[in-house]
Design goal:
- The chain has a 4-stranded antiparallel beta sheet, covered by helices on one side. Strands 1-3-2 form a 3-stranded antiparallel beta sheet.
- Helix 5 (about 80-95) crosses helix 6 (about 100-115).
- With about 210 residues, the chain is an alpha+beta fold.
- It is elongated and about 80 Å long.
- Strand 6 and strand 7 form a beta hairpin.
- It folds into 2 domains: about 5-75, Orthogonal Bundle (Arc Repressor Mutant, subunit A); about 95-205, no CATH class.
- The protein has helices spanning about 5-15, 25-30, 35-45, 70-75, 80-95, 100-115, 125-140, 165-170, 175-185, and strands at about 20-25, 50-55, 65-70, 145, 155-160, 190-195, 205.
- The protein is built from 9 helices and 7 strands, in the order αβααββααααββααββ.
């Protein structure tokens, strides 16, 4: 008998292959398990938001509930985003060159920061940095505030992970997005003091003093 996790994945695969949905009886037949086992798996998947019930469908007897995948259920299947991103960056670098690609990524980061600017309005600069750390953590980073450099007034930001880990190994231009994003939020130049992909223990960002 397949393990519980394997059965759930097979159930999701059956629903992926049948966009109109399947009933409990149809799933039990396709998976070779009991109706009660199907119900148990569907209950868990429904609770997690991976499946939902559609209008009942008559199946020879009384109408049976039809289950379909939700968007979250479809997204649970592996995606090849890293492959697509690599192809995209290779093409852009070939067309416009490394320097222009780096500038494009920086400008894109600044542009993306605009949506979060209202969260920073009215805050003094140290509090802005604390809020920037929160924003970065919300987007997948594991970010912290660290002590200022000697002679600096502002704390720095340190990240213990890279959300573009595989991509930034090959395309250093990706790091310019983070610099642009943080710079746009703070309204000042940012120095990328340390980078995990270049041998550092973390990614560390320093805010340059205002002129």
């Amino acid at each position: 008998m397949p393990a519980s996790g394997d059965t759930r994945q097979r159930l999701l695969s059956e629903l992926l292959n049948c966009k109109t949905g399947l009933t409990i009886d149809e799933l039990a037949s396709r998976l070779g398990i009991s109706r009660s086992a199907v119900k148990q798996h569907l209950s868990g998947l429904e609770g997690n938001g991976y499946v939902k019930r559609n209008a009942p469908r008559k199946t020879g007897g009384r109408p049976g509930s039809v289950y379909v995948l939700t968007d979250a259920g479809v997204d649970s299947f592996p995606k090849k985003y890293s492959w697509f991103s690599r192809v995209l960056f290779e093409s852009l670098r070939a067309q416009i060159g490394a320097d222009r690609l780096a500038q494009y990524m920086f400008d894109l980061g600044v542009e993306m920061s605009a949506a979060a600017i209202p969260r920073l309005l009215g805050k003094p600069r140290p509090e802005r940095i604390a809020e920037i750390v929160k924003i970065m953590n919300e987007t997948g980073f594991v970010a912290y505030e660290v002590a200022p450099d000697k002679g600096d007034a502002l704390q720095r930001i340190e990240c213990k992970n890279c959300v573009y880990h595989d991509l930034s190994k090959e395309f250093t231009e990706v790091c310019r997005f983070d610099i642009g994003f943080i710079s746009g939020l703070m309204g000042t130049e940012v120095e990328h003091q340390e980078c995990m992909q270049r041998g550092g223990q973390s990614c560390r960002f320093r805010f340059k003093p205002l002129a």
